[in-house]
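Re: the request from the purification team.
They wanted to know what the chain is likely to look like in 3D before they choose a buffer screen. I agreed to run a prediction and write the result into the notebook, where they can find it.
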Amino acid sequence: MTRTTALIVAAGSGTRFGSPIPKQYQDIGGMAILRRSVLAFLNHPHITDAQVVFSPQHRDLYERAVAGLGLPEPVTGGAQRQDSVRLGLEALGAQSPAPDFVMIHDAARPLIDTQTITAVRKALNTAQGAIAAKPLVDTLKRGTNNYISQTIPRDNLWQAHTPQAFHFDAILNAHRAAAGQHLTDDAAVAEKAGLQVTLVPSNPDNMKITNPDDLGRAARLLGQSFGDIRTGLGFDVHRLITGDVIHLGGLHIPHDMTLEGHSDADVVLHAITDALLGTMAAGDIGAHFPPSDPQWKGADSSLFIRHAVQMINERGGLISHVDVVIMCEQPRLGPHREAMQQRLAELLEVTPDRVSLKATTTERLGFTGRGEGIAAQAIATVRFEG
């Protein structure tokens, strides 16, 4: 099977950005820029895995940004971007097997879209290298002391974007040969090695965050891209029986009862899954994971919620918020609330402030009041491309 790895370069200090928090860790649309860039590749069917190159001095920011994504240990970058890319490639080359292809992307381009990634990757089927690039449409002027000294024809001129993709062995050798030369991008490294690199039209919105003003523009573009706001409602209930652990909200809570069901009977994850499916009019959890199918007997319900999240990602959606109400007499959920909120955020691939978690009793009325079962209700808000 062909392996294509996304190498996300996030080792910069962001001095031009003018903030103590580097730009790759700034928030845009409720998510760190780095996380949004990484997810664009992890959620793409042509990408096998992702590797981040970072600066160890930003370890805490990095861990928060990529929490729950299951990434390998980040590679420590170098003094210049070119050094960081080479070190990332060396780390990938030490793996067995090494990737067949690598797509090198700047973390500060969080609006990279599925279509551009697809086009760049497919170009490698016939080319040694391919980069996303934008044809120049404005007239270029060379200036001297603020006066025009030359008009430069814009014919055949392009702005280089990322991702920049290559056959892995070729670009690793090219970077090794170019060490210390401080070339402007990976395509320049490839050109220096004699590799032929093709140009692939990039989405014009594939902008690079360089200064604080860019954050506002990117947020506006993101808002325009996700204009179809939908909500979904989910509800689930399971009976309590004698046992030793309750699976709830992705946690395993020790108890003298357990929830009865074909899977692990996690009512919270089931309710959220149905809510997410509802935003896509994609049926309910039973349609995707029939209880009559023996393969789901005792299954971890995190599989179900991850399936729904993947469907949303594939359709270009963004989970904006999930609100959950748990109805039960026991167990007491206060001691578990923070851990449950964090776990749900990881499964949903959002920050914890986008997960609202509440617990209530029914004043000893009904089956939950009698301690016979636990119920959960969830509402999900998802923004899709308009």
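For the purification team: The first strand starts at residue 4 and ends at 10.
Please add any questions underneath this entry.
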